[in-house]
Specification:
The complex is a heterodimer. Chain A is mostly beta strands. Chain A has one helix at residues 25-49, and strands spanning 11-16, 59-61, 66-70, 76-79, 91-96, 102-103, 106-108, 112-114, 122-124, 127-129, 136-140, 142-143, 146-147, 153-155, 158-160, 163-172. In chain A, the strands form five sheets. In chain A, strands 1, 2, 3, 5, 11 and 16 form a six-stranded antiparallel beta sheet that branches. The termini of chain A are close together. Chain B is of the alpha+beta class. In chain B, 34% of the residues lie in helices and 20% in strands. Classes of the chains: A mainly beta, B alpha+beta.
Chain lengths: 181, 112
């Protein structure tokens, strides 16, 4: 939570790009690029796995773009995005704005990776994404209308350098509310 | 939008359309050629979604701003070291697509 109140588990500096900044051409351009991308992706995902349920409405911005800076030792313990902020966080789109020297990975401890051709052999029980400048990660917080427990994730502590991210939480068009709790 | 970004987005769309069944259910494992992997949750990563200049501009746009400092709990580094063990790194790169290489999704999983 970044409402100025104490948060359990998060150590960072953050700000939402609201007001004039929300309508800045760069922000508008990036948000459009994100929505083009995620809705292209969703069309495929819905068809394959029914991730968002039978209706599969388009994804839209649920909140303003948020910029977060983690300095050395800062991080965010395991959490589900759909339980924080507004209730419209069906999916998360995160952008890494700088390459962190060491640490600061985005870690999904309950994620599963397996080879479908070799039965249910699980190759690893977690996914760790390195913060590399320009890289994005997009993931759903729900599956079939319910919280996806595999979406649990954390920002691992920064060991050295600074970690900068921008996050856009996405909701369904019908339920989108420009609300920041 | 920069021309390169338009190209990037075009490539991403092509990738998603052409490899819709491969992208999540069967990403390619570079460590084990020929192996296809399934991933849960539904998750995509892509390199170079933003240019370096765009990243810098976004940071600048957020500074100065109404920054909130949140420092309730310090996460101990020592215990996190254990989590590095046995967990993987996962990356999808479409850099090769931009340079007109054959269209495919690359998923790299490093263990340990």
């Amino acid at each position: 939570m970044t409402d100025g109140h104490v948060s359990s588990g998060r150590t960072s500096f953050s700000t939402f790009l609201t007001g004039e900044k929300a309508s800045h051409s760069l922000v508008v351009t990036i948000e459009k690029r994100i929505l083009d991308f995620v809705n292209s992706a969703q069309a495929s995902l819905d068809e394959i796995e029914g991730i968002t349920g039978s209706e599969a409405p388009q994804l839209v911005s649920a909140e303003p773009l948020q910029i977060v800076r983690y300095t050395q030792g800062q991080g965010y313990t395991s959490h589900y995005d759909n339980r924080a902020g507004s209730q419209a966080r069906k999916a998360t789109f995160m952008l890494y704005l700088a390459t962190c020297e060491s640490g600061g990975h985005t870690f999904f401890p309950r994620a599963r990776v397996w080879n479908p051709d070799s039965g249910e052999e699980q190759l690893c029980s977690g996914i760790k994404i390195a913060p590399v400048k320009g890289r994005c990660v997009f993931f759903y917080n729900i599956r079939n209308g319910k919280e996806d427990e595999c979406s649990l994730h954390e920002a691992m502590p920064v060991v050295s350098g600074d970690k900068w991210i921008a996050t856009l939480w996405l909701g369904h068009a019908a339920s989108s509310v420009a609300q920041v709790c | 939008m920069f021309a390169s970004q338009r190209a990037l987005l075009r490539c991403a769309r092509k990738l998603l359309q052409k490899h819709r069944t491969d992208l999540h259910r069967s990403p390619r494992c570079l460590k084990r050629p020929g192996a296809w992997l399934s991933v849960s949750p539904a998750l995509l990563t892509m390199d170079d979604f933003l240019t370096s200049a765009e990243c810098d501009a976004l940071i600048a746009l957020g500074t100065p701003g109404a920054w909130h400092r949140v420092d309730a709990i310090f996460v101990p580094l020592e215990s996190m070291e254990e989590l590095h063990i046995a967990y993987g790194f996962f990356s999808l790169s479409i850099r090769s697509m931009i340079s007109h290489s054959p269209l495919f999704a690359q998923i790299c999983v490093d263990r340990g």
